[in-house]
Amino acid sequence: MSTLKKFDLSEIPYYKVHGRTIPKIRPLPLFYNGSAVELNVSGCELWVDLEVSWHTLEIWVTIEVNGAPVSRLMLMPGNHSLCLFRGMSPEPVKNVRVTRETQAMTEDEDCCLIVHGFQTDGLFYPVPQGKYTLEFVGDSITSGEGTYGAIGDPDWIPMYMSYSRDYAKMTAEALGADACIISKGGWGVLSGWDNNPNCNIPSRYEQLCGLCCGSKNESLGAFKPYDFSTRETDAVIVNLGTNDASAFLQPAWHDPATGRTFKQRLNPDGTCHKEDLNRFEDAVVSFLHMLRRHNPKAHIVWCYGMLGYELSFAINDAMTRYIRESGDHNVIYLQLPNTTEETVGSNGHPGKLSHERAARVLTEYLRSYLSL
Amino acid sequence: MSTLKKFDLSEIPYYKVHGRTIPKIRPLPLFYNGSAVELNVSGCELWVDLEVSWHTLEIWVTIEVNGAPVSRLMLMPGNHSLCLFRGMSPEPVKNVRVTRETQAMTEDEDCCLIVHGFQTDGLFYPVPQGKYTLEFVGDSITSGEGTYGAIGDPDWIPMYMSYSRDYAKMTAEALGADACIISKGGWGVLSGWDNNPNCNIPSRYEQLCGLCCGSKNESLGAFKPYDFSTRETDAVIVNLGTNDASAFLQPAWHDPATGRTFKQRLNPDGTCHKEDLNRFEDAVVSFLHMLRRHNPKAHIVWCYGMLGYELSFAINDAMTRYIRESGDHNVIYLQLPNTTEETVGSNGHPGKLSHERAARVLTEYLRSYLSL
Amino acid sequence: MSTLKKFDLSEIPYYKVHGRTIPKIRPLPLFYNGSAVELNVSGCELWVDLEVSWHTLEIWVTIEVNGAPVSRLMLMPGNHSLCLFRGMSPEPVKNVRVTRETQAMTEDEDCCLIVHGFQTDGLFYPVPQGKYTLEFVGDSITSGEGTYGAIGDPDWIPMYMSYSRDYAKMTAEALGADACIISKGGWGVLSGWDNNPNCNIPSRYEQLCGLCCGSKNESLGAFKPYDFSTRETDAVIVNLGTNDASAFLQPAWHDPATGRTFKQRLNPDGTCHKEDLNRFEDAVVSFLHMLRRHNPKAHIVWCYGMLGYELSFAINDAMTRYIRESGDHNVIYLQLPNTTEETVGSNGHPGKLSHERAARVLTEYLRSYLSL
Amino acid sequence: MSTLKKFDLSEIPYYKVHGRTIPKIRPLPLFYNGSAVELNVSGCELWVDLEVSWHTLEIWVTIEVNGAPVSRLMLMPGNHSLCLFRGMSPEPVKNVRVTRETQAMTEDEDCCLIVHGFQTDGLFYPVPQGKYTLEFVGDSITSGEGTYGAIGDPDWIPMYMSYSRDYAKMTAEALGADACIISKGGWGVLSGWDNNPNCNIPSRYEQLCGLCCGSKNESLGAFKPYDFSTRETDAVIVNLGTNDASAFLQPAWHDPATGRTFKQRLNPDGTCHKEDLNRFEDAVVSFLHMLRRHNPKAHIVWCYGMLGYELSFAINDAMTRYIRESGDHNVIYLQLPNTTEETVGSNGHPGKLSHERAARVLTEYLRSYLSL
Question: Which residues of A touch B337 (CB under 8 A)?
């Protein structure tokens, strides 16, 4: 290991960043699950220098070598040099990716993963862009909640979240695309699963990463407007509505600070209250306009169904209204197979098999669309 | 074979008829694909006495013994005694089903399959009803077109249609349900694939079998109003819209007799003309009312997607309108995975693998619904 | 159908015969399961003219069009014109195969299937040879016993035998090879499952088809020496030993005619009696010499295991002895996965899933060997 | 984390050790891949205290929670407290296993993994024994070489070895059995892949762990005779012969220290030299006697084939000789499906899919045997 040379990111000629980022930012924060740094590098050995902080919700990462996953581990707070490979033949160029496995956390203001640099005895080579750029906007499903852990395990813990078994990763890989994830468990289009109206993704979508918190993340630029011009997205895949459906079944949310109350109501016959359903649909329509504004050429695919079809008609109705208002037909509704006893993971969420099945439907659809 | 005894249907104490029928009708016409006669019978040997007629489009049947398919064959016109099994151990009771494999044919007025009786050396035993009754209303997909024949084979022939590889059969078997099929290739909700407005399923739905023709079928009661009270349907699965989508892409249909013309129009930008889309949606709304009138307790599942998602928004919009008009929420829209190069069959239609995949989504949905 | 022209085989310029046959024999007997006649033909319609005879054990055939199975049916005794397809587009050349589904029958001296000719409105085209020629020598497993019929069905009937779900067919198709089957249920290398020493395959192997009986088959040349020079076999796959293992567990066989008795004995501790095991091994060694004599260049693959591994050591020991005696190393022992509850078919025999699994192992082995 | 209590192993009432060990040894060395410590524990959080040492070949471990794999990571030398889970609901009892992923290493005398204790805020509960005890004796296949890493990756590195994707783990889990592995890549029954006659597993089989080296391992008792009486093994699965086959193709091995040379020779015609083959067979016979001596009641299953069938006849011949010499019939030869392009992993070794396929054959065989 004595021959390893330490490189600050600024000294590395080629590396590729996955996920929303600021071009050339150094050091490099990885905000979302799926956010990653990818290298092509020769040499026998490679280490990454990471800065990790969190208070209650730990961060996990995965390591892939030549496209094959080799490691998945929890990171303790502190500065770490993490070995990515060692003992390999020096000449061949290895493709290596270090990926944040766990979602952005609004619950832990210290939660932060920063890449400072690498150490290696090899040389760096260019990393090509993907054939397409896909953006995935979602909730716990897209945060891979339940993709690890035993069926029946009830805990909401970072260990059971992932990008590595996420339909977004599977879809992007099958299409040779780069994926960009913006997701947060429990959040919806209008409100969170518990009727908290602050937990709506659209309100944070325009920030680089509005789904974390704290001064450290702020100092890294997380809350600044995201510059959508840095990349052109081929398709935006929205997978939202599941928590909005949940809100109809949950008690009202009370804001102790303001005294404000919020509740999506059910009628006595079990159907959704018309006004509240309209409120949800308005939020969908509005979000579609926002998505289109920032992604003028992207195909917008609204996916739904992996945890039930409750708001299927409402989403379609909103999409139809959006199309009528905008004349924009570059949108589609794609129902994904519901999760079953055979495909469920931990904490009642879609397991790996459910994500594989969803990814197949989505991949087939996008392959057909993108090849036109 | 000398010990075989010939039984007219009227002499057989127990047999079960699958598909729309008139209770105790003798001889027994099998109008639709999936229409069948099922026996529990002991003895070494069993034959069925059939009357077969057709002019251009031949009839196929399948034979199942104890639930396992053993034979699939083309029937020539004439009266046939067809051996269903022979040489078996006499004591065990065998479950045997003879099923019409090919759809009702409006193109051949002679096309007709009639069961007269059976010959056996065994005894007849009761045949239990299924756990549920499912009605499938569809087009070529539900008529199993393309489920036989090589991929790439372009011919529209009865040999390539089936019930034996149909998602309807797979779904019914997985749920332990009885299936009842009303389907005809090329037909739609508003018009046929070629804009022929006569080829709409709703106009024939209320007849016992409005999807065949000719005086022979008439004499068998095919065109009489179907008596919906003879069975209570648990779920009506509609799989229509694919030919309505096709009509937008096809030339206008001209009726040489009346001079009438019909055409679902596309706008110059490739979207559907609003008036024509409304016309389609009106037909969907109207059909939903009809279905509910005749099946007051049935869950109505509108399936769509096995050959493209083009009218997905329109169907949802129509269903939302129907719900608003009727207050009836006992309906759902279920998108089925599109057919791909890997799952296609002959003549560009869904192959066995596509039907299996659709059946899985539908089965999972119905299992969950029916277990509530 | 008025435009159909009737062709005697002698008038047809191109057709291909599968299975052991006499070159240019007319009419064409199909002796074994898998024996078939294959055509490339244009036209709308095609019929085959068959002569069928049997007394107790009926004959089944399958029909394939462009490689896709479309029909499987029982044939009654008599002369039949059987429609293979109709209503197809006239120009494209269709590949059609009519295949005997049921094995040669020593139990029914009338059992005989003869092809006389075809009727069509099309033209005949050449049919290419397969890339390789494979000969399969076996027992009920290779006769596809149990590949049809429900799990648990106990009957030994032709309806449950097949070539269409046989590992031999699957293997040949995967390799683009022509298959030739010599098999008979219940027979072994040394004796039948019931210790009948006459039921040994080697004693009939050198005849064209020694596994049928009766004067009609005799008149068709069935019992004449097979001319091994008519084709060069690339691999001989032997799948025998299962009935020889059974013989150790069955009572002695008594020949009422001669008073002769035959029994493969078990020791009190459940192991096989050494002398009798040697007798079996001698038969294997001797059969290997016979196979090599007639197939000088063929790779000999002795498969075993689909119904248990009991004689695995004995077969290996005999093969090792054969190699030592002959210096011939062009032989291999290939163990196939045993049949389980998940893969069993009717009558306790390997089902379709077991055949698929065996075919995969065998195909992989042969693909690797043949590509050297 | 302030409430965590540190427990030395001696203070923990219940924990289960997987793999060869000395009862109650503290601290606990984990010598082999698959060697593990398993706990049932309540509480929110659990850490393991490990002592790790190696010089050139790093050690990997995996973590499973409630039977689901959650982490796989490389361990650096030093004393580590590794978090196994955190943030979980305190009451439920979690099953946790920390497993050594990489094989014993004769190449690195420092290579050593020792468990000192655990830290938790929970309580310990009994861990039941498996239904059966299985011992797996093998080479690189059983060491899981190639089960991680990209197809085509040529490196021999610990990162690409595993227990987590090993057929041994899959088989044991499917049967509810405890597995015990003794394996080392490159080693054979008679010699290593490179003709090194010291690299033979039988010479080390009787030691607790003869497949590591160095004074530290010696001080942990690795080279002491293993006490076979500590557990009764139900089946010994031997998967050896692959490197012995390789030796016939490799150059002679020269021992620079003694000047000794060793070579398994091929004849000019490519067959194995009879004397050398006998030498191999003698080694197999002798090893079978050794296995039986130490495992008097175990069913001995000699598996072979995952990387070619070359010595299949020789292994069978040796087994037959062993049976004749010993009268012991409690042995079987089980051929496993060869690895193909579809199932290969990195470094030309069986990948996960090949291990799954092998495990299925082996599991089915053992399930049937063990249920007798």
Answer: 337, 360-361, 364
Which among C116, C2, C94, C101 has a CA at the least distance from the CA of C40?
C94
Q: Is A211 exposed, middle or buried (0-12, 13-18, 19+ CB in 10 A)?
A: buried
pLDDT at residue D372, as a whole number: 81
Can chain A be said to touch chain C, i.e. do they have 3 or more Cβ pairs within 8 angstroms? no
Q: Is the dihedral of CA C316, C322, C325, C329 positive or negative?
A: negative
Whole-prediction pTM value?
0.96
Task: Single out the residue of D340, C239, B329 nearest to residue A268, CA to CA.
Answer: B329
Check CB contact of D308 with chain C, cutoff 8 Å. Answer: no
Q: For A15-50, what is each residue's pLDDT tens digit?
A: 999 999 999 999 999 999 999 999 999 999 999 999
Positions of chain C with pLDDT lower than 50, given as ranges = 1
Instruction: Tell me how far apart the alpha carbons of residues C94 and B149 are, in angstroms, rounded to a whole number.
Output: 11
**Cα(C348)–Cα(C152) distance, rounded to whole angstroms?**
7
Peptide bond into D154 cis (omega under 30): no
- For chain B, report the end-to-end CA distance as a whole number of angstroms: 51
Please give the pLDDT value at position B2.
52
Across the range A220-241, mean pLDDT stands at: 96
* Percent helix / strand / coil, chain B, rounded to 5: 25, 30, 45
Q: Which helix (H) or strand (E) holds C331?
A: strand C331-335
**Rounded distance between C-alpha atoms, residue B6 and residue B121, angstroms:** 9
Whether the CB of D218 is below 8 Å from some CB of chain C: the reply is no
* pLDDT tens, residue by residue, D320-351: 999 999 999 999 999 999 999 999 999 999 99
Contact at CB, B368 and A329, closer than 8 angstroms: no
Q: Tell me the CA distances in angstroms from C174 to A117, B274, C143, D268, D308, one per residue in order.
A: 51, 52, 19, 34, 21
Q: Are C75 and C61 in contact (CB under 8 A)?
A: yes
Instruction: Give the Cα separation of D338 and D309 in Å (integer).
Output: 8
Q: State yes or no: pLDDT of A170 exceeds 90.
A: yes
> What is the pLDDT averaged over residues A257-262?
92
pLDDT for the residue A1: 45
Strand partners, D134: D179, D235
Per-residue confidence band for B256, with pLDDT thresholds at 50, 70 and 90: confident
User: Quick check: B330 contacting A, CB < 8 Å?
Assistant: no
Chains near A (3 or more Cβ pairs under 8 Å)? B, D
**Cβ burial, residue A5 (10 Å; 0-12/13-18/19+):** exposed
Question: Is C157 touching B (CB cutoff 8 A)?
Answer: yes
How far apart are the C-alpha atoms of B120 and B126, rounded to whole Å?
Answer: 16
B1 vs C: CB within 8 A: no
Write b or e for each residue in B191-211: b if 16 or more Cβ atoms lie within 10 A of its Cβ, otherwise e: bbbbbbbebbbbebbebbbbb
Do D334 and C309 count as a contact with CB atoms less than 8 A apart? yes
**How many Å apart are CA A139 and CA A105, to the nearest integer?**
12
- Give, to the nearest 10 degrees, the angle between helix B274-294 and helix B242-249: 160
Do residue D76 and residue A83 have CB atoms under 8 angstroms apart?
yes
Return the residue of D nearest to C329 by Cα: D271
What is the Cα–Cα distance from C136 to D25, expressed in whole angstroms?
Answer: 58
Give the separation between CA D100 and CA D52, rounded to whole angstroms.
Answer: 11
What's the confidence (pLDDT) of residue A256? 87
Q: Torsions phi, psi of C125, nearest 5?
A: -130, 160
Mean pLDDT for chain A overall: 97
Tokens 């055949």 — which residue?
Answer: C355
Bridge partners for D266 per DSSP: D272
SS3 per-residue string spanning B197-229: CCCECHHHHCECCCCCCCHHHHHCCCCCECCHH
Asked if residue D87 lies in contact with residue A157, where contact means CB atoms within 8 angstroms, the answer is: yes
